Amino acid sequence: MPQQDLDKRPVQSGRINLDPEGAEQGLAQLVLTVIELLRQLVERHAMRRVEGGTLSDEQIENLGVALQNLEIKMDELKGIFDLEDEDLNIDLGPLGNLL
Fold it and tell me: What family does this belong to (predicted)?
């Protein structure tokens, strides 16, 4: 199969594609999945701190801007690698979906 055809293969949602021909796409999917998981954890922790009143107004503003910038960058990277949100929610078998 020509390389250009390999690059246009659809990503199967729920599975990481690490076959030799699509290694770059699969690696990008895996890395973005880990980043998305960490982003969600940081966002939840930040919300607990905001609700707990342990952050100043300036810290809340900075945190909001940082999380918004990260979301924008994630959307940009998903576009580059032709990935959708559901592509980052990998299936962990009996454990269920990651995200």
Answer: Belongs to the gas vesicle GvpK family.
Contact 11, 91 (CB under 8 A): no
**Which residues have CB under 8 Å from 41's CB, separation 6+?**
none
From residue 16, how far is each of 6, 12, 20, 46, 71 by CA, in Å? 15, 8, 12, 29, 21
Q: How many domains are there within the chain?
A: 1
Domain that holds residue 53: 3-91
pTM beyond 0.90: no
Average pLDDT, integer, range 75-94: 88
| Burial (0-12, 13-18, 19+ Cβ within 10 Å), 88 | buried
pLDDT digits (tens, 9 = 90+) for 34-70: 999 998 899 999 999 999 999 999 999 999 999 999 9
What is the structure's pLDDT at 84? 92
